[in-house]
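Rotation project, supervised by the postdoc (A.L.). Task for the rotation student: set up a whole-complex structure prediction and record inputs and outputs verbatim in this book. Inputs entered:
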Amino acid sequence: SDFSHLDAAGGARMVNVGHKPEQQRTAKAEGWLRCRPETISALRARALPKGDVLTVAQIAAIQAAKRTDELIPLCHSLPLNVVEVEFDIEDTAIHIRSSVSMTGKTGVEMEALTAVSVAALTLYDMCKAVDKTMQIDGIRVTEKIKQ
Amino acid sequence: SDFSHLDAAGGARMVNVGHKPEQQRTAKAEGWLRCRPETISALRARALPKGDVLTVAQIAAIQAAKRTDELIPLCHSLPLNVVEVEFDIEDTAIHIRSSVSMTGKTGVEMEALTAVSVAALTLYDMCKAVDKTMQIDGIRVTEKIKQ
Amino acid sequence: SDFSHLDAAGGARMVNVGHKPEQQRTAKAEGWLRCRPETISALRARALPKGDVLTVAQIAAIQAAKRTDELIPLCHSLPLNVVEVEFDIEDTAIHIRSSVSMTGKTGVEMEALTAVSVAALTLYDMCKAVDKTMQIDGIRVTEKIKQ
Amino acid sequence: SDFSHLDAAGGARMVNVGHKPEQQRTAKAEGWLRCRPETISALRARALPKGDVLTVAQIAAIQAAKRTDELIPLCHSLPLNVVEVEFDIEDTAIHIRSSVSMTGKTGVEMEALTAVSVAALTLYDMCKAVDKTMQIDGIRVTEKIKQ
Amino acid sequence: SDFSHLDAAGGARMVNVGHKPEQQRTAKAEGWLRCRPETISALRARALPKGDVLTVAQIAAIQAAKRTDELIPLCHSLPLNVVEVEFDIEDTAIHIRSSVSMTGKTGVEMEALTAVSVAALTLYDMCKAVDKTMQIDGIRVTEKIKQ
Amino acid sequence: SDFSHLDAAGGARMVNVGHKPEQQRTAKAEGWLRCRPETISALRARALPKGDVLTVAQIAAIQAAKRTDELIPLCHSLPLNVVEVEFDIEDTAIHIRSSVSMTGKTGVEMEALTAVSVAALTLYDMCKAVDKTMQIDGIRVTEKIKQ
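Outputs recorded:
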C-alpha cells in the first residue's frame, strides 16, 4: 500500500503523563507590546477609550491560562495553583511578565506563554483605537522550576 | 513617577493555593425565584411552553457549577465530586438549594452560589413567556464544611 | 401505553425564531450584592485582597453576557452590539445595573440578567475573604425596548 | 399534593465520587464512518477539499475528550493522562479507535466514546462535499481497565 | 526542496462562505442507541439511577448543536433559529431524531448530526450503570432543505 | 465623595457597534516563531515527537480565531466567513500568516492576530521537546480591508 502507518494513524500524538510523579512546578514567561510613546502617555493618563487597560489584560491573561488545554490541542488539563501577571510601563512598550504554578505531572510553560500572549492581545485591543503601529515581540520562557 | 505600583501591576490578584492541604470540602447555598401564583400553577400543571422547567434548570446549574472557573475570573479550576440541586415549590416562589463537594485545596462556595444563580436564571428563562414580574432573591451560602 | 408523547419527546423545547423579524432590541436589568458597611469601606479604600473589585466584576459580566447561550440551555446564540455594566456604591450594598443591545430576532433580557448575576457572583468572590454575610438580591428586568 | 418529590427535585442526579479511590483507569472505544469507495480513494490520494482529514479528526477527537464534562451534563471533570485516536482505512469505511487513560475516581469510557464520536463527525465534515451517503455506526466500548 | 507547498501551508482549509447568499436552511438527522430490553423497561419505569434520561439527553443535544463550531474544527459559527430533538422508544433501542434550522450562508447538517451524536452519548451515560452492551448506530442525515 | 464616577462604573467599556453598517471586512496578520536550525530540520524530516506540527497549529489557530470574543474580553462575537493560516519555513524561524474575513459591523484584526498568536503557541508546544530557545516575535497586522 502507498498509505503509510503515519497517515492511517493521523499526525497528532499527545504525550502520556500517567507515569510521571506529581511535583510542584512553576514557569515564568515574558513578552512586549511595542507601541508609540503617545499610547504610553494616554495609558498613564487613563485616557484610553476602552478603560483600565492593565486590569482588563490581566484578567484576560489569567482566564486564558486556565484554559490553555482548550487553546493548544495537545496540552493536558491542569489545575493551576496561581497565575500572576505583571506589567512594566516602558517608554515605547508595555513589558508583560507571567508566573504560573501547579502541583502535577507536567510543566506549565505553555500556560505561562499563553498568559503573556493573551495579555498582549488584550492590550492591543484596548489601545488599537489610538495606535495602528503596535507589534507583539519577544514572547519567551524565562524560568522553569520543578520541586 | 505618578504611576503607582498597583496600576503597573494591574488590579487583579489570584490567591495562591499551592501550599494548602487537600481536604474534603462541601458548600451549600440557596436562593429564590419569586413569581406569580399563576406561574406556580402552570409549573405544577406542566403547562409551561419550554417544557420540564425543573430538570432543565437542574442540568444548567450542574453544568455551570463545573465551569465556575470560567465564569468568575479569579476562581481556581476544581474537579468537583458532586453537584446537587433541589427545588421546593412555594406559593409564589421556587426555592433553590445546591450542595457541592470536592476534595481539594480551596472552598467551593462560589460553585454552590453559581449553581443556584444559573438555576434561577434558567427557571426565569423557562417561565418568562407567562410571567413578566419575576425576581431572583436571597442567594447566599448556608453552610461550609471542611474535613 | 403508559408512556406519554411528552416523555418520549423529552421535556425541553427551544422556541423557533426563524420567522421573527430582525429588530434593534435592548434590555436592562439590576440587582444588589448586600454586604457589611466595613466591606464597602474596604472597597472604597481599595483594600480588598483580590484587587480592583469593580473592574473584575464588570469584565466577568460582559464575558458572561456574550456566553448566555452556553449557560442557559434554551437560549439562542446572539451577536450582541454592546454590554454595559455599572455599579452604585451604597452604604451596605453594591447596586449593579446592566444594559444589553442587539440587532436580531429575540429579546436580550436573559443576557442582561446574566450580566447582573455574574457581576454579583464575582463581587462576592472578590469580597468573601472579609465578609461572610453577603447576599445577592433583587435581580430583575427593569426595561425592555424593541425598535 | 399531586406534585411528587421527584418532580420537585428535578430529574437529574450526578453520582458522588467523593469516597471512591484514585485509580489508574483506561477505556477504549471504536466506531466506523461508512462511506463510498470513491471517498476512500480521494482520502488516499489526499484529494479531499478540506485537507488532511485524519489529522484534523484526530485533533478534534482529542480536544473533545478533554471537554467531555461540558458535553455530557452529568459527567465529572477529569484530568486525562493521554488520549490516543487511530484510524484504519477500510474499503468502504474508516475504522476509528480511541484509548483514554486517567488517574482518578471514575471511569473514562464516556471520554473514549466522545473521542470516537467527534472523530466520526469531523471525518463526515471533511468528506461531505464528495459523499452524501455516509453513516456513523458501531460506536461502542471495547475495553475497560482499572489498576 | 522536498518540502511541498501543501506541507508548508498545513493540511486544513476552511471553506469561504463570504459570497454565499443568506438562505433559510434546515437539516434533519437520526441515529439509534441500541440497548437491552431491560434497559428500555427501566427507562419506561423511570428507574434509571441518574434520573430523567430523555430530558437530560435533549438538553445536552441542544447545547452541543449550538457549539458545533467548537467541536468540529472547520465548521462555521452559526446562529441557529431552533434545534429540536425527539426520541422514539423501541424494544431494544432509543431512536433519536433531530431537526436544526438557521438563516445563513451554509448548511446545518453537521449541527443536526452533532445533536444526534451528543444525545446518544448522553443516553449512554445515563444508562451505563445498568447496561454494558450498548452501541450507537445509524447516525445519518435524513433531509436537507434550502429555501 | 473621594469615590470617582470612573471607579463606581468600573474600568471597562465595550464599544457599541449597533449603528455601524454591515460591511465585508478582511484583516491579515503575521508573526514568527524563531527557533534553532536543528528544529527546522526535524520539522522538515517530520521527526518531531508530537506529530504533524503545521496542521495541528493551523487547526488550533482556526479554532481560536472563532473564539476571539471569549479570549479578549471587550471583543464582539463575530460569525467569520473564513480563517486562513499559512506557514513559510525559514532557516531559523516559522513565518505565520493569517487572513480572516467577515460580513459585519466591526473589524477582524483581533481575530487575525489571535490566529497568529495561537498558531505560534501551538508550534512552540509541538517543538518544545527538542528546542528550549524558541521565541515568538513580530506579531502585527499587515492589512485591513473594508468593502
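Student's summary: Chain D touches chain B at residues 2-3, 7-18, 69-70, 73-74, 76-79, 104-105 (CB under 8 Å).
Supervisor addendum: DSSP finds five helices and four strands in chain D.
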